[in-house]
Each structure stands twice: as structure tokens, then as C-alpha cells.
Amino acid sequence: MRIDFAGVPRDKWVEGLRNRVTASAVRRTNVIEVSYRSRDPKAAEAVVHAVVQSYLSFMERNHKNVSAEIVQILDKERADIAQQLDRRQHDMLMVQKKVRDLGISGKQDVVHPAVQRVMRLNEALVKVQQDRLQLEASLAAIRVAVREGADMRQHMNDLEPLIGREMMLNSMGLNTKDSEMRATLERKVMEDQSKLQTLLKHYGDAHPKVLEVAQSIHSAEEYLRNYQSLAQQRLSGLDDQRLRTMLVSMVEERLAGLWQHESKLSRQYSQAEEEAVQLNDRMAELRMVEHDLTRLRNLHDGLLARINNIDIGKDQSDLRVAVVSEPKSSGRPVSPRLSLVGMMCLLGGLGVGVALVYVLDVLDDRFRSPEELQEQLRVPVLAMIRQLSLAKTAGLEAIQVHVAPESVESEAFRTLRTTLAFSGQDMERIAITSTEPGDGKTTVISNLAVSYAHAGKRTLLIDCDLRRPGLTKLFELRGSGGVSEILRDDEDIAAMCQQRVQATGIDGLDIIPCGPKPSNPAELIGGSRLSDLLAWAESHYDQILVDCPPIMAASDAAVVGRLTDSLILVVQPEKNHRRLVLRAVNGLAAIGVQLGGIVANRINSDKSTGYYGYGGYGYGYGSGYGYAENTSGEDGEPLQTASAPLSVAAESRDAESEESAAATPTSSHRKRIKPRRAA
């Protein structure tokens, strides 16, 4: 049974046992599963049995009759809380006496009487202050009127609301009862007049009732006229000096009373405000005591509930433990599992391989083969141009097809010419651009133009790269007039083009250079004169080739591409990033520019690259095939070739086109003019 501890010191047995024993709870149950990993199944069963028995003994010893101890602890805590509760209740009674609580402290919509008193005193004080200020203003106005000797009767009506109607009447020798009687008589006159109108509907003018009511109305009206004349007499009987003295004395008397009343209200308000502030502090203390009292009561009730629940089962243990199943060893080894190890190795190796492929793809962001180039760009690959090794960088000596027309490198440009001729589309106006500067678009377009000239076509090169004119530099035409002047001026297109067309020194090949570099090349290219320039060129030449700026550097190539039959993109696989080329192709497709194909430039013939099969294509011609403009040797017999069938057909078809061209009139007389395309 101690096979797992053989050779292990005894002081290490506990640690070894802990490392091999596992206890885990089964989800959503009260079951604990105990397992032990051992070299021998019997030893594993014995260890698990011993551990479980030890656990059962521990639970029996420590958890039996523990309820009584819990009840004692809880009851002691409850007694302490009950004492605190009594003290807080006594404190609450004392605070309520100080506050003089009337039972409305807990009601939200009821205001305490002390607060109500402060509010009423404040309103009365504000009202008295307003009356005092108005009366002071009136007194100042009366004094000004007295000094100026003005009529004081106009101030009497203004003072009536401030000093009172009764005081005003008494000052004139009238009684308030007279005014009340006057008002009563006025109402009675109105009632008698209404009654008289009703009686006249049923009786005549001489009827006793009608006469009685009419007499009553006459008497009342007579009294009112006499009362009004009496008031006017008494008012007119007052001389100006007496009236001024009377008004000033009445206002000063009323103002003195308001000052006394305001002072008394101010003292009462200050006293009531102080009492309200003290009341607020006591109410806050009362709320704190009530909160503590509520908390202690809830805690006391909770302890009582727990004690009652424990008393129900105090003779039982809180935890009951039972063995669900006896220890049983597994029939198969749990470690190592060869199938699991093999599956993990397979998945790990697959994951490492995928990660390695992804890392290599990210690090080497290049096109590895022409198939990959065509599949990802979804554009045909027209030609594969090998790395050229010319010593010259300018002049006709820098053009491969002119210097060595029979070389393998020159054959790639003739293959490009043949592919464009057999594309099934009209390819008389072709624009060539690249992804970024330095991809060799100028080299490709110049060699392609020479190959067209060798085929007997009148060819025109137009340098529309107004920023970095590569064609102008290649043919050493700097300082000459060109495209920028044609696009900028408003003169006749035909006359300007005839003046600025330059001969290149190669039969059938002319060029319109860039001209002076403009400050706004994008605006010139986007103007309407570029389409007129292309229309003139199409009417005078068989083939037009337009050199455009790199598509990722400027938008000029997109504008020119919409005016030509096709736009060819020059890609340098060893240099251009795949994502950059994809962005350029997608950008052209988004604006509706027809991309005729891709030209892969500067292909290395090394066998380690995926382009070797295409780069080695030139070697199939060997040194036994010399290219010439005619298709026969010196003795009149056809030259023997070892080329692929596609190239033979291309050259044969090209020869046929040359023969047909020789039998027809000059190309300038048989050209048809196409409609202009809007940029």
C-alpha cells in the first residue's frame, strides 16, 4: 500500500500525499469527489478509503452538538443589543422632550409650528417694509409739493390706500358711516330702478306701486346729490395751508406707526428664527437617534429568529456526511494517454505550421509567382521583362530593343506587343503607369514604342508625367516645348502639336515631350484639352503610347486611363509590396478605369525564384535564333526556331500584319477618328 512512498523520506509523505489527492465538488450538487493517483490500483483504493474515513471522524467529532454553543453565543450578543436598545430609547425620549415633538416629525407634508411662525413673521415684515417705503416716497413727494405751492388735493387719492380711508374721511370732517350709508343707498337705487322697470311692464305710470318706487328712487338720488355737494363743500372749505399741514401730519403719523410696527416684527422674527435653527439641530439629532433605534431593533429581531431556528434542531448536527459510493479504481491507466498525446502533438504541429506560414507571408509581402500575381490581382499578366543590363541611361543607346533587337531581353517587349495586338480589344491608345516610382515604366514604354515602330506602325510617345518626365529625360529633350504648353494654352491643338512633335531618330517613332514643368499638373491633366490632344494623335498615328505618373503618387494616371483604350500597370515583384499593388488595382477599378493587364518588370532568372520558368523562357531561343525585321534568312529560307507555339504564332501573325500594312495606303490616310472620351 506504500508503493508511492518507496524511497521517499517519511517527512515528505504528507507533501506527496497532498500532491496526489484531488477533491472536487460536483456542479449543482452537495457531492465531493475524492480521487488519488497511484502506481497500483489497490493502493489508490486504500488511500481514498483512509482519507474518507478520516474526514468522517473529523466531522463527527467537531460538528456534533455545536448548536448549543451557537445558541449561547447568539443569546449573549442579543442581550448586549437589548441593553443598547434600552439606552437609545431613553435617549430618544429625552430628545423628543427638548424638541417638543407633537407627533408630526415623521410626516413629510406637515411643517412644524415654529417654522410656520417664522414664515408668517417674515411675510408680515416684508409687507410692513414695503408700506413704509411707499409712505416715505409719498411723504417726500408731498414735501416737494408743499415747497412748490402745488395743489394738494391730487395727493389725497394716492394716500388713501396707505393711511386708510377712515383717517382720510375724519380729516375732512366726514364719517365712515356716511360713506357706508351712501354705498347702501346707491345699491338700493339700482335695485329700485330694476324693480321699476319690472312694474312698468305690468302697470301704468299712475299705478300706486309704480309711484311708490319712483318716489323712493327720487328721494335716494336727492340724498346722494346732497351728500356729494356736502363733501365738496367741506373739501373746498379747507384752505391750502390747512390741507398741506393735515396731509403732512397724517403721513408722518402713519409713518411713525409703521416704524414701530416694523421694529417689533423684526425683533420677533429674529427670535423666531433662532428658535427654528435650534429646532432644526434637535430634529437632526432626533432622526439620528431614530435611525440607531431602528437598526438595533432589526438586529435584535434577527438574532431572535436565528436562535429560534437553532433551538428547533439543537440535538442534531449542522452538517451530515455520508459516503455515496465506495472507492473504485479505474480499469485503464490515467497517465500517459497515448491517443491524447498524439492528438495534442498533431494539433500543436498544425498550429505551429499555420503560424509559421502566416509570419512568412507577413514578412515577405511580395508576389512569388506569375500565377499568384494574376490570381490576386484578377488581371492578366501580359509580359515578363527580365533585368536589362545597358550601360547608357539616356539616348537611343539606353533602349534595349534599338541597341540589341535580336537579344532575349528584346523578345519580351515584342511578346508584349503581340499580346496587346491579340487581346481582342482596340489597343491604339495605351497608357502605361506603375505602382510607385522606380518600377521601370519609362523603360517599358520606350522599348514597346520601338517594337511598334519596327513593326511598321507610326508610333507617337506622349510624356504626360508632368512631375518627373522620364521619357523627356530618356530622349534628352529637356527644355523643349511639349504637353504642358499644349494643355495650358488656348491656341489650336493641331498647330501646337505639329510644332512640338519631336523625331526620336528611329523611323516611325515620334515623341511629344513633357515641356516646362507646370505648377498645377493635376488641373492640366484633368482639363478638356487632353482629350483633344489624343484625338489629334489618333488621326495622325497608328499607335499612341502615353507615359503617366505612378498611380500611388498622383491621380493623373486614372484621368489618362479613362481617355485611352487601356491602362497597363508595370509591377516590379521584387520591389513592390503586395498590399500596395492591390490597393492601386482596386483604386483603378473603383473609378471605372479599364486595366488592360500587368507587366512584370526586372524579373531575375535565378532558379530560386518562382519566376524562373518565365524568365528562362528567353533561353529557349538560344543563340541559333537571330531576330530581324524580315522572316527569312540570307538564302531566302525561313529561319529555324525552338520557340514555344504561342511565340511562333505571334511573330507569324505580326509578319502578316506587316505585309498587309505594306499593301495598304499610309496609316495617316486610313485612320478612323474615335469619339472623344470625357475625363
Explain what the structure shows.
This protein has helices at residues 13-20, 41-63, 66-99, 113-148, 153-163, 165-171, 176-200, 208-237, 240-312, 338-363, 370-377, 400-403, 408-421, 441-454, 470-474, 483-488, 493-500, 521-525, 529-540, 556-563, 578-590, 612-615, 645-662, 667-670, and strands spanning 21-25, 32-36, 381-386, 429-434, 459-463, 502-503, 509-512, 543-547, 566-571, 595-603. The chain is an alpha/beta fold and 679 residues long. The radius of gyration is 59 Å and the shape is flat. Mean pLDDT is 77; it is low at 612-679.
Outline:
With 679 residues, the protein is α/β, with parallel strands linked by helices. 58% of the residues lie in helices and 8% in strands.
Question: What is the topological layout?
Answer:
Layout: H1 13-20, E1 21-25, E2 32-36, H2 41-63, H3 66-99, H4 113-148, H5 153-163, H6 165-171, H7 176-200, H8 208-237, H9 240-312, H10 338-363, H11 370-377, E3 381-386, H12 400-403, H13 408-421, E4 429-434, H14 441-454, E5 459-463, H15 470-474, H16 483-488, H17 493-500, E6 502-503, E7 509-512, H18 521-525, H19 529-540, E8 543-547, H20 556-563, E9 566-571, H21 578-590, E10 595-603, H22 612-615, H23 645-662, H24 667-670
Parallel strand pairs: 3-10, 4-8, 4-9, 5-7, 5-8, 9-10
Antiparallel strand pairs: 1-2, 6-7
Helix pairs in contact: 3-9, 4-5, 4-9, 5-6, 5-9, 7-8, 13-14, 13-23
